[in-house]
Amino acid sequence: xxxxxxxxxxxxxxxxxxxxxxxxxxxxxxxxxxxxxxxxxxxxxxxxxxxxxxxxxxxxxxxxxxxxxxxxxxxxxxxxxxxxxxxxxxxxxxxxxxxxxxxxxxxxxxxxxxxxxxxxxxxxxxx
Length: 127
Prior knowledge:
The protein is mainly β. The chain has no helices and 9 strands.
């Protein structure tokens, strides 16, 4: 019998939930898609996700404000070692124009669970 395809079980998705990675093995990405402004007091990111797309796993080193721009559904998928306020998979309807304050410490993935492109602005507050 021939060998079948190799599957990386760390990327296996179970109802939008990946199996957790070992902290030492994971690579962290940026908080958003691109930095659109930065000075000594704030860093502002734009995050864009197509329908069904996941962000990179990332760590929030700073308190931040999320400003929802567009989309229909978004979720946060926290890592087991997250220090942020979201400890379990959380999915919500997008309300364009809403602003949400989030304390630092989260290690997570953003997941566009909707059918529309998702856009948010992340304003990191530097100490």
